Amino acid sequence: MVDTYVGSIDQGTTGTRFMVFDHSGQVVANAYKKHEQIYPNPGWVEHDPTEIWENTKEVVVEGLENAGLDASQLEALGITNQRETTIVWDKESGRPVHNALVWQDRRTTDRVEELQDEGKVEDIREKTGLEADAYFSATKTEWILDNAEPLKLQSSREGNLRKRAEEGELLMGTIDAWLIYNLTGNHITDVTNASRTMLYNIRDLEWDDELLDEFGVPKEMVPEVRPSSDENHYGHTDPDGFLGEEIPVAGALGDQQAALFGQTCFDKGDAKNTYGTGSFYLMNTGNEAVASDHGLLTTIGFQMSGEPVQYALEGSIFITGAAIEWLEDVDLINNAAQTAELARSVDSTDGVYMVPAFTGLGAPHWDGRARGTIVGMTRGTRKEHIVRATLEAIAYQTRDVAEAMEADSGVELTSLRVDGGAVKNNFLCQLQSDIIQTDIARPEVDETTALGSAYAAGLAVGYWDTVDELRDNWQIDREFTPEKSADDVDKLYDRWHDAVDRSLDWAQEE
Protein backbone atom coordinates (compact mmCIF):
# COMPACT_ATOMS: atom_id res chain seq x y z
CA MET A 1 0.00 0.00 0.00
CA VAL A 2 1.32 3.45 -0.99
CA ASP A 3 1.91 5.90 1.88
CA THR A 4 -0.24 9.01 1.81
CA TYR A 5 0.32 12.49 3.20
CA VAL A 6 -1.15 15.97 3.55
CA GLY A 7 0.35 19.00 1.80
CA SER A 8 0.45 22.56 3.05
CA ILE A 9 0.99 25.73 1.03
CA ASP A 10 2.40 28.38 3.37
CA GLN A 11 2.29 31.71 1.54
CA GLY A 12 4.20 34.18 3.70
CA THR A 13 5.30 37.79 3.54
CA THR A 14 8.75 37.09 2.13
CA GLY A 15 8.19 33.84 0.28
CA THR A 16 6.14 30.73 -0.38
CA ARG A 17 6.80 27.35 1.20
CA PHE A 18 5.32 23.95 0.44
CA MET A 19 5.54 21.23 3.07
CA VAL A 20 4.25 17.68 3.23
CA PHE A 21 3.46 16.00 6.56
CA ASP A 22 2.91 12.40 7.61
CA HIS A 23 0.55 11.01 10.27
CA SER A 24 2.95 11.85 13.10
CA GLY A 25 3.19 15.48 11.98
CA GLN A 26 6.75 15.06 10.70
CA VAL A 27 7.98 16.88 7.61
CA VAL A 28 8.59 14.64 4.57
CA ALA A 29 8.94 17.36 1.89
CA ASN A 30 9.90 21.03 1.96
CA ALA A 31 10.52 23.63 -0.76
CA TYR A 32 10.71 27.43 -0.55
CA LYS A 33 11.00 30.41 -2.87
CA LYS A 34 11.18 34.13 -2.11
CA HIS A 35 9.22 36.76 -4.00
CA GLU A 36 9.98 40.40 -4.68
CA GLN A 37 9.19 43.08 -2.10
CA ILE A 38 7.98 46.20 -3.91
CA TYR A 39 8.26 49.62 -2.20
CA PRO A 40 6.75 52.26 -4.54
CA ASN A 41 6.80 55.01 -1.87
CA PRO A 42 7.85 55.34 1.79
CA GLY A 43 5.47 53.23 3.90
CA TRP A 44 4.03 51.44 0.84
CA VAL A 45 4.58 47.68 0.43
CA GLU A 46 3.33 45.59 -2.50
CA HIS A 47 3.64 42.07 -3.90
CA ASP A 48 2.96 40.77 -7.40
CA PRO A 49 0.04 38.29 -7.10
CA THR A 50 0.98 36.58 -10.37
CA GLU A 51 4.52 35.99 -9.13
CA ILE A 52 3.10 34.51 -5.91
CA TRP A 53 0.87 32.09 -7.85
CA GLU A 54 3.72 31.06 -10.18
CA ASN A 55 6.02 30.52 -7.18
CA THR A 56 3.31 28.46 -5.46
CA LYS A 57 3.09 26.06 -8.38
CA GLU A 58 6.87 25.88 -8.55
CA VAL A 59 7.43 25.01 -4.87
CA VAL A 60 4.64 22.41 -4.84
CA VAL A 61 6.15 20.61 -7.82
CA GLU A 62 9.70 20.98 -6.51
CA GLY A 63 8.80 19.80 -3.02
CA LEU A 64 7.15 16.64 -4.34
CA GLU A 65 9.97 15.91 -6.78
CA ASN A 66 12.74 16.39 -4.22
CA ALA A 67 11.00 14.01 -1.79
CA GLY A 68 10.28 11.44 -4.50
CA LEU A 69 6.53 11.77 -3.98
CA ASP A 70 3.71 11.69 -6.49
CA ALA A 71 0.82 14.18 -6.29
CA SER A 72 -1.55 11.18 -6.05
CA GLN A 73 -0.11 10.51 -2.57
CA LEU A 74 -1.60 13.76 -1.26
CA GLU A 75 -4.94 13.17 0.45
CA ALA A 76 -5.58 16.89 0.84
CA LEU A 77 -4.08 20.35 0.52
CA GLY A 78 -4.24 23.04 3.19
CA ILE A 79 -3.42 26.72 2.79
CA THR A 80 -2.03 29.23 5.22
CA ASN A 81 -1.17 32.79 4.32
CA GLN A 82 0.07 36.22 5.24
CA ARG A 83 -3.14 37.79 6.50
CA GLU A 84 -4.73 41.13 5.53
CA THR A 85 -2.67 41.37 2.32
CA THR A 86 -5.28 42.23 -0.29
CA ILE A 87 -5.75 41.44 -3.97
CA VAL A 88 -8.43 42.63 -6.41
CA TRP A 89 -8.72 40.63 -9.60
CA ASP A 90 -10.81 40.39 -12.76
CA LYS A 91 -13.52 37.74 -12.46
CA GLU A 92 -13.44 36.79 -16.14
CA SER A 93 -9.70 36.69 -16.87
CA GLY A 94 -8.48 35.91 -13.34
CA ARG A 95 -5.84 38.62 -13.64
CA PRO A 96 -5.05 41.05 -10.82
CA VAL A 97 -5.95 44.68 -11.49
CA HIS A 98 -3.08 45.91 -9.28
CA ASN A 99 -0.30 44.57 -7.13
CA ALA A 100 -1.35 43.14 -3.76
CA LEU A 101 -1.29 45.70 -0.95
CA VAL A 102 0.67 43.99 1.84
CA TRP A 103 -0.44 43.97 5.48
CA GLN A 104 2.54 46.21 6.31
CA ASP A 105 1.40 48.89 3.85
CA ARG A 106 0.58 52.25 5.50
CA ARG A 107 -0.75 54.25 2.54
CA THR A 108 -4.28 54.40 3.98
CA THR A 109 -3.27 55.93 7.32
CA ASP A 110 -5.06 59.20 6.42
CA ARG A 111 -8.27 57.26 5.77
CA VAL A 112 -7.99 55.55 9.15
CA GLU A 113 -7.55 58.93 10.83
CA GLU A 114 -10.77 60.08 9.09
CA LEU A 115 -12.58 57.14 10.69
CA GLN A 116 -11.14 58.14 14.07
CA ASP A 117 -12.21 61.78 13.59
CA GLU A 118 -15.72 60.65 12.59
CA GLY A 119 -16.07 58.57 15.78
CA LYS A 120 -16.43 55.25 13.93
CA VAL A 121 -13.67 53.34 15.70
CA GLU A 122 -15.81 51.87 18.49
CA ASP A 123 -18.42 50.57 16.04
CA ILE A 124 -15.71 48.92 13.94
CA ARG A 125 -14.13 47.35 17.03
CA GLU A 126 -17.50 46.08 18.28
CA LYS A 127 -18.32 44.36 14.99
CA THR A 128 -14.92 43.13 13.86
CA GLY A 129 -12.85 42.87 17.04
CA LEU A 130 -10.20 44.97 15.27
CA GLU A 131 -8.66 48.38 15.78
CA ALA A 132 -9.32 50.76 12.89
CA ASP A 133 -5.94 50.52 11.18
CA ALA A 134 -4.34 50.54 7.73
CA TYR A 135 -3.15 47.00 8.57
CA PHE A 136 -6.48 45.44 7.59
CA SER A 137 -8.02 44.78 4.16
CA ALA A 138 -10.95 47.22 4.13
CA THR A 139 -9.05 50.44 3.42
CA LYS A 140 -6.68 48.56 1.09
CA THR A 141 -9.57 47.37 -1.09
CA GLU A 142 -11.07 50.86 -1.04
CA TRP A 143 -7.73 52.36 -2.11
CA ILE A 144 -7.35 49.97 -5.05
CA LEU A 145 -10.87 50.72 -6.32
CA ASP A 146 -10.37 54.47 -6.01
CA ASN A 147 -6.74 54.93 -6.95
CA ALA A 148 -5.31 52.03 -8.93
CA GLU A 149 -4.68 52.61 -12.61
CA PRO A 150 -7.03 50.20 -14.42
CA LEU A 151 -5.08 47.63 -16.43
CA LYS A 152 -6.04 46.27 -19.82
CA LEU A 153 -7.38 42.80 -19.15
CA GLN A 154 -7.91 39.92 -21.53
CA SER A 155 -11.58 39.14 -22.26
CA SER A 156 -12.72 42.14 -20.31
CA ARG A 157 -13.41 45.76 -21.01
CA GLU A 158 -11.42 48.59 -19.52
CA GLY A 159 -13.09 51.05 -17.23
CA ASN A 160 -13.36 52.62 -13.83
CA LEU A 161 -12.53 49.97 -11.25
CA ARG A 162 -15.17 51.01 -8.76
CA LYS A 163 -17.86 50.90 -11.44
CA ARG A 164 -16.62 47.52 -12.63
CA ALA A 165 -16.71 46.22 -9.04
CA GLU A 166 -20.31 47.37 -8.66
CA GLU A 167 -21.21 45.55 -11.87
CA GLY A 168 -19.79 42.31 -10.48
CA GLU A 169 -16.73 42.17 -12.74
CA LEU A 170 -14.10 42.24 -9.97
CA LEU A 171 -13.35 39.98 -7.00
CA MET A 172 -11.34 40.72 -3.85
CA GLY A 173 -9.73 38.53 -1.30
CA THR A 174 -6.81 37.87 0.97
CA ILE A 175 -4.00 35.60 -0.27
CA ASP A 176 -5.82 32.40 0.77
CA ALA A 177 -8.78 33.34 -1.44
CA TRP A 178 -6.41 34.11 -4.34
CA LEU A 179 -4.74 30.70 -4.03
CA ILE A 180 -8.02 28.80 -3.55
CA TYR A 181 -9.39 30.57 -6.63
CA ASN A 182 -6.37 29.61 -8.73
CA LEU A 183 -6.31 26.04 -7.41
CA THR A 184 -10.04 25.28 -7.63
CA GLY A 185 -11.78 28.08 -9.56
CA ASN A 186 -13.91 28.87 -6.48
CA HIS A 187 -14.06 32.23 -4.67
CA ILE A 188 -13.79 31.14 -1.03
CA THR A 189 -12.06 32.25 2.17
CA ASP A 190 -12.15 30.84 5.70
CA VAL A 191 -13.48 32.49 8.87
CA THR A 192 -10.03 33.38 10.22
CA ASN A 193 -9.03 35.31 7.12
CA ALA A 194 -12.45 36.94 6.81
CA SER A 195 -12.05 38.14 10.41
CA ARG A 196 -8.95 40.14 9.36
CA THR A 197 -10.58 42.22 6.64
CA MET A 198 -12.35 44.78 8.88
CA LEU A 199 -15.45 43.95 6.80
CA TYR A 200 -16.66 40.82 8.62
CA ASN A 201 -18.83 40.71 11.74
CA ILE A 202 -17.13 38.13 13.96
CA ARG A 203 -20.16 37.73 16.22
CA ASP A 204 -22.85 37.40 13.53
CA LEU A 205 -20.40 35.48 11.29
CA GLU A 206 -21.28 37.34 8.12
CA TRP A 207 -20.06 40.18 5.92
CA ASP A 208 -21.26 43.42 7.47
CA ASP A 209 -23.40 45.50 5.08
CA GLU A 210 -22.65 48.77 6.88
CA LEU A 211 -18.90 48.23 6.73
CA LEU A 212 -19.03 47.13 3.09
CA ASP A 213 -20.92 50.35 2.41
CA GLU A 214 -18.49 52.47 4.46
CA PHE A 215 -15.52 51.30 2.38
CA GLY A 216 -17.39 51.05 -0.91
CA VAL A 217 -16.84 47.31 -1.31
CA PRO A 218 -19.74 45.72 -3.24
CA LYS A 219 -20.95 42.47 -1.69
CA GLU A 220 -20.47 40.74 -5.06
CA MET A 221 -16.71 41.22 -4.62
CA VAL A 222 -16.22 39.35 -1.34
CA PRO A 223 -15.65 35.58 -1.11
CA GLU A 224 -17.89 32.95 0.44
CA VAL A 225 -16.80 32.26 4.03
CA ARG A 226 -16.28 28.65 5.13
CA PRO A 227 -14.92 26.81 8.22
CA SER A 228 -11.12 26.57 8.57
CA SER A 229 -11.34 22.77 8.35
CA ASP A 230 -14.09 22.01 5.85
CA GLU A 231 -15.49 18.51 5.32
CA ASN A 232 -17.35 19.88 2.27
CA HIS A 233 -14.00 21.01 0.81
CA TYR A 234 -13.34 24.35 -0.90
CA GLY A 235 -12.90 22.52 -4.21
CA HIS A 236 -10.38 20.29 -5.97
CA THR A 237 -7.30 20.86 -8.04
CA ASP A 238 -7.74 20.44 -11.79
CA PRO A 239 -6.70 16.92 -12.90
CA ASP A 240 -5.50 18.56 -16.13
CA GLY A 241 -3.62 21.26 -14.24
CA PHE A 242 -0.05 21.54 -12.96
CA LEU A 243 -0.41 18.66 -10.46
CA GLY A 244 -2.21 16.27 -12.82
CA GLU A 245 -4.42 15.09 -9.95
CA GLU A 246 -7.79 15.97 -8.41
CA ILE A 247 -6.82 16.76 -4.82
CA PRO A 248 -9.25 18.23 -2.25
CA VAL A 249 -8.40 21.69 -0.97
CA ALA A 250 -10.01 21.36 2.45
CA GLY A 251 -8.35 23.62 5.01
CA ALA A 252 -7.28 27.25 5.30
CA LEU A 253 -6.18 29.46 8.17
CA GLY A 254 -4.49 32.83 8.34
CA ASP A 255 -0.86 32.20 9.27
CA GLN A 256 -1.15 33.14 12.95
CA GLN A 257 -4.29 31.10 13.50
CA ALA A 258 -2.60 28.23 11.64
CA ALA A 259 0.28 28.39 14.11
CA LEU A 260 -2.22 28.34 17.00
CA PHE A 261 -3.75 25.20 15.43
CA GLY A 262 -0.35 23.64 14.70
CA GLN A 263 0.72 24.25 18.31
CA THR A 264 -2.45 22.32 19.30
CA CYS A 265 -3.82 25.27 21.28
CA PHE A 266 -7.31 23.81 21.11
CA ASP A 267 -8.37 24.69 24.66
CA LYS A 268 -9.34 27.96 26.30
CA GLY A 269 -6.24 29.63 27.80
CA ASP A 270 -3.72 27.95 25.47
CA ALA A 271 -1.31 30.52 23.99
CA LYS A 272 1.46 30.72 21.40
CA ASN A 273 3.77 33.35 19.91
CA THR A 274 5.05 33.13 16.35
CA TYR A 275 8.24 34.97 15.46
CA GLY A 276 8.27 35.70 11.74
CA THR A 277 8.47 38.98 9.85
CA GLY A 278 6.38 40.27 12.72
CA SER A 279 5.33 38.47 15.91
CA PHE A 280 1.83 37.39 16.70
CA TYR A 281 0.77 36.29 20.14
CA LEU A 282 -2.58 34.46 20.28
CA MET A 283 -4.55 33.04 23.18
CA ASN A 284 -7.54 30.76 22.65
CA THR A 285 -10.59 32.21 24.48
CA GLY A 286 -12.98 29.38 23.58
CA ASN A 287 -16.46 30.15 22.25
CA GLU A 288 -16.39 33.66 23.74
CA ALA A 289 -15.24 36.69 21.77
CA VAL A 290 -13.43 38.52 24.59
CA ALA A 291 -13.36 42.29 24.06
CA SER A 292 -9.98 43.88 24.78
CA ASP A 293 -9.48 46.91 27.01
CA HIS A 294 -5.70 46.86 26.53
CA GLY A 295 -5.05 47.30 22.83
CA LEU A 296 -5.38 43.68 21.68
CA LEU A 297 -7.50 42.36 18.83
CA THR A 298 -10.43 40.00 19.21
CA THR A 299 -10.27 37.57 16.34
CA ILE A 300 -11.48 34.18 15.17
CA GLY A 301 -9.05 31.42 16.16
CA PHE A 302 -10.48 28.63 14.00
CA GLN A 303 -13.64 26.72 13.15
CA MET A 304 -14.03 23.00 12.54
CA SER A 305 -16.77 21.62 10.29
CA GLY A 306 -20.10 21.57 12.09
CA GLU A 307 -18.68 23.14 15.26
CA PRO A 308 -18.92 26.63 16.78
CA VAL A 309 -16.23 29.19 16.12
CA GLN A 310 -13.36 29.33 18.62
CA TYR A 311 -12.16 32.88 19.29
CA ALA A 312 -8.77 34.27 20.27
CA LEU A 313 -7.18 37.39 21.67
CA GLU A 314 -4.27 38.56 19.56
CA GLY A 315 -1.34 40.89 20.01
CA SER A 316 -0.01 41.85 16.57
CA ILE A 317 3.58 43.08 16.57
CA PHE A 318 4.44 44.36 13.10
CA ILE A 319 8.24 44.10 13.08
CA THR A 320 10.39 41.47 14.79
CA GLY A 321 12.15 39.16 12.30
CA ALA A 322 12.10 42.07 9.83
CA ALA A 323 14.25 44.01 12.30
CA ILE A 324 16.89 41.27 11.97
CA GLU A 325 16.63 41.62 8.17
CA TRP A 326 17.17 45.36 8.58
CA LEU A 327 20.41 44.71 10.52
CA GLU A 328 21.52 42.69 7.50
CA ASP A 329 20.36 45.37 5.04
CA VAL A 330 22.55 48.00 6.73
CA ASP A 331 25.53 45.60 6.99
CA LEU A 332 25.61 45.33 10.79
CA ILE A 333 25.38 41.53 10.38
CA ASN A 334 26.12 39.10 7.55
CA ASN A 335 23.28 36.69 8.38
CA ALA A 336 20.59 36.16 11.00
CA ALA A 337 22.57 33.41 12.78
CA GLN A 338 25.27 35.97 13.64
CA THR A 339 22.95 37.94 15.94
CA ALA A 340 23.26 35.50 18.88
CA GLU A 341 27.07 35.50 18.75
CA LEU A 342 27.27 39.33 18.58
CA ALA A 343 24.64 39.84 21.29
CA ARG A 344 26.40 37.40 23.64
CA SER A 345 29.72 39.21 23.16
CA VAL A 346 28.50 42.14 25.31
CA ASP A 347 26.98 41.97 28.80
CA SER A 348 24.24 44.49 28.01
CA THR A 349 23.17 47.06 25.44
CA ASP A 350 24.96 49.78 27.44
CA GLY A 351 21.66 51.66 27.72
CA VAL A 352 20.83 51.46 24.00
CA TYR A 353 17.20 50.74 23.04
CA MET A 354 15.96 50.02 19.55
CA VAL A 355 12.24 50.43 18.73
CA PRO A 356 11.66 48.72 15.35
CA ALA A 357 8.57 50.75 14.38
CA PHE A 358 9.45 50.66 10.68
CA THR A 359 5.79 50.36 9.68
CA GLY A 360 4.22 51.92 12.76
CA LEU A 361 3.47 50.14 16.02
CA GLY A 362 0.78 47.49 16.44
CA ALA A 363 -0.50 46.08 19.74
CA PRO A 364 -0.87 47.48 22.28
CA HIS A 365 0.13 50.96 21.03
CA TRP A 366 -1.61 51.19 17.60
CA ASP A 367 0.29 54.16 16.23
CA GLY A 368 0.51 54.09 12.44
CA ARG A 369 2.81 57.13 12.49
CA ALA A 370 5.41 55.70 14.87
CA ARG A 371 8.78 55.08 13.23
CA GLY A 372 11.95 53.14 13.98
CA THR A 373 14.10 54.69 16.69
CA ILE A 374 17.45 53.99 18.33
CA VAL A 375 18.07 55.86 21.59
CA GLY A 376 20.77 55.92 24.26
CA MET A 377 23.80 55.78 21.95
CA THR A 378 27.20 57.17 22.98
CA ARG A 379 30.63 57.20 21.31
CA GLY A 380 31.19 53.88 23.04
CA THR A 381 28.21 52.24 21.27
CA ARG A 382 29.23 49.37 18.97
CA LYS A 383 27.28 47.28 16.51
CA GLU A 384 27.14 44.51 19.14
CA HIS A 385 25.07 46.82 21.37
CA ILE A 386 22.67 47.67 18.54
CA VAL A 387 22.28 43.99 17.59
CA ARG A 388 21.59 43.04 21.22
CA ALA A 389 19.14 45.95 21.54
CA THR A 390 17.29 44.66 18.47
CA LEU A 391 16.90 41.18 19.97
CA GLU A 392 15.80 42.72 23.27
CA ALA A 393 13.21 44.81 21.40
CA ILE A 394 11.62 41.61 20.08
CA ALA A 395 11.35 40.32 23.64
CA TYR A 396 10.11 43.64 25.10
CA GLN A 397 7.37 43.93 22.47
CA THR A 398 6.25 40.41 23.38
CA ARG A 399 6.09 41.37 27.07
CA ASP A 400 3.95 44.42 26.15
CA VAL A 401 1.47 42.02 24.59
CA ALA A 402 1.77 39.34 27.29
CA GLU A 403 0.83 41.84 30.01
CA ALA A 404 -2.13 43.09 27.97
CA MET A 405 -3.20 39.48 27.37
CA GLU A 406 -3.19 38.65 31.09
CA ALA A 407 -5.13 41.83 31.91
CA ASP A 408 -7.81 41.12 29.29
CA SER A 409 -8.19 37.38 29.80
CA GLY A 410 -7.60 37.10 33.54
CA VAL A 411 -5.42 34.06 32.75
CA GLU A 412 -1.91 34.12 34.20
CA LEU A 413 0.68 32.88 31.72
CA THR A 414 2.68 29.89 32.98
CA SER A 415 4.22 28.69 29.72
CA LEU A 416 4.39 30.13 26.20
CA ARG A 417 4.64 27.93 23.12
CA VAL A 418 6.85 29.57 20.49
CA ASP A 419 7.48 28.94 16.80
CA GLY A 420 8.74 30.61 13.63
CA GLY A 421 12.19 31.12 12.16
CA ALA A 422 13.62 33.27 14.96
CA VAL A 423 13.07 30.65 17.68
CA LYS A 424 16.00 28.64 16.32
CA ASN A 425 18.02 31.36 18.11
CA ASN A 426 18.63 29.99 21.62
CA PHE A 427 19.83 33.38 22.86
CA LEU A 428 16.53 34.98 21.85
CA CYS A 429 14.47 32.21 23.48
CA GLN A 430 16.39 32.59 26.76
CA LEU A 431 16.08 36.38 26.55
CA GLN A 432 12.35 36.03 25.99
CA SER A 433 12.00 33.75 29.01
CA ASP A 434 13.89 36.26 31.17
CA ILE A 435 11.97 39.32 29.99
CA ILE A 436 8.46 37.88 30.39
CA GLN A 437 9.51 35.80 33.42
CA THR A 438 7.88 32.61 32.23
CA ASP A 439 8.81 29.27 30.66
CA ILE A 440 9.26 29.12 26.89
CA ALA A 441 8.45 25.82 25.14
CA ARG A 442 9.91 25.30 21.66
CA PRO A 443 8.41 22.34 19.75
CA GLU A 444 10.35 19.84 17.65
CA VAL A 445 8.51 20.94 14.50
CA ASP A 446 8.85 24.71 14.53
CA GLU A 447 7.15 25.24 11.14
CA THR A 448 3.83 25.10 12.97
CA THR A 449 2.12 27.51 10.57
CA ALA A 450 2.36 25.02 7.71
CA LEU A 451 1.59 22.17 10.11
CA GLY A 452 -1.60 23.90 11.30
CA SER A 453 -3.09 24.19 7.83
CA ALA A 454 -2.09 20.59 7.08
CA TYR A 455 -3.88 19.50 10.27
CA ALA A 456 -7.01 21.47 9.26
CA ALA A 457 -7.09 19.89 5.78
CA GLY A 458 -6.22 16.42 7.09
CA LEU A 459 -9.01 16.47 9.69
CA ALA A 460 -11.48 17.52 6.99
CA VAL A 461 -10.72 14.45 4.83
CA GLY A 462 -10.30 11.97 7.71
CA TYR A 463 -6.50 11.64 7.46
CA TRP A 464 -6.56 12.37 11.20
CA ASP A 465 -9.73 11.44 13.09
CA THR A 466 -9.52 13.64 16.20
CA VAL A 467 -7.60 16.58 17.63
CA ASP A 468 -6.31 14.22 20.35
CA GLU A 469 -4.13 12.56 17.68
CA LEU A 470 -2.65 15.97 16.95
CA ARG A 471 -1.99 16.69 20.63
CA ASP A 472 -0.05 13.41 20.79
CA ASN A 473 2.13 14.62 17.89
CA TRP A 474 3.25 17.77 19.74
CA GLN A 475 6.72 17.29 21.22
CA ILE A 476 8.99 19.77 23.03
CA ASP A 477 12.44 20.30 21.51
CA ARG A 478 13.69 22.51 24.36
CA GLU A 479 12.30 24.46 27.29
CA PHE A 480 13.79 27.75 28.55
CA THR A 481 13.27 29.02 32.11
CA PRO A 482 14.03 32.50 33.52
CA GLU A 483 17.62 33.02 34.65
CA LYS A 484 17.38 36.73 35.58
CA SER A 485 15.53 38.16 38.55
CA ALA A 486 12.23 39.96 38.04
CA ASP A 487 13.64 43.14 39.65
CA ASP A 488 16.54 43.35 37.20
CA VAL A 489 14.30 42.77 34.21
CA ASP A 490 11.66 45.25 35.40
CA LYS A 491 14.22 48.07 35.52
CA LEU A 492 15.23 47.42 31.91
CA TYR A 493 11.60 47.09 30.84
CA ASP A 494 10.64 50.44 32.40
CA ARG A 495 13.19 52.20 30.18
CA TRP A 496 11.77 50.38 27.14
CA HIS A 497 8.54 52.35 27.63
CA ASP A 498 10.54 55.59 27.52
CA ALA A 499 12.11 54.53 24.22
CA VAL A 500 8.69 53.65 22.75
CA ASP A 501 7.38 57.09 23.71
CA ARG A 502 10.13 58.69 21.62
CA SER A 503 9.10 56.71 18.51
CA LEU A 504 5.43 57.71 18.58
CA ASP A 505 3.68 60.00 16.06
CA TRP A 506 6.89 60.62 14.11
CA ALA A 507 5.76 60.40 10.44
CA GLN A 508 3.87 63.62 9.82
CA GLU A 509 4.07 63.97 6.05
CA GLU A 510 2.77 60.56 4.84
Outline the secondary-structure elements.
Layout: E1 5-11, E2 15-21, E3 27-34, E4 46-47, H1 49-67, E5 74-81, E6 86-90, E7 100-101, H2 109-117, H3 121-128, H4 137-147, H5 161-166, E8 170-174, H6 175-184, E9 188-190, H7 191-194, E10 200-201, E11 206-207, H8 209-214, E12 224-226, E13 235-236, E14 248-254, H9 255-262, E15 271-275, E16 279-286, E17 297-302, E18 310-317, H10 321-329, H11 338-344, E19 353-355, E20 373-375, H12 383-409, E21 415-419, H13 426-436, E22 439-443, H14 448-460, H15 467-473, E23 476-480, H16 486-503
Parallel strand pairs: 1-5, 5-14, 9-12, 15-21, 21-22
Antiparallel strand pairs: 1-2, 2-3, 4-7, 6-8, 10-11, 13-14, 15-16, 16-18, 17-18, 19-20, 22-23
Folded structure, characterized:
There is one protein chain. The chain is α+β, with helices and mostly antiparallel strands and about 500 residues long. It has 16 helices and 23 strands. The protein has helices at about 50-65, 110-115, 120-130, 135-145, 160-165, 175-185, 190-195, 210-215, 255-260, 320-330, 340-345, 385-410, 425-435, 450-460, 465-475, 485-505, and strands at about 5-10, 15-20, 25-35, 45, 75-80, 85-90, 100, 170-175, 190, 200, 205, 225, 235, 250-255, 270-275, 280-285, 295-300, 310-315, 355, 375, 415-420, 440-445, 475-480. Strand 1 (about 5-10) and strand 2 (about 15-20) form a beta hairpin. Residues about 150-155 have low confidence and may be disordered. This is Glycerol kinase. One of its GO terms (cellular component) is cytosol. Pfam families: FGGY_C, FGGY_N.
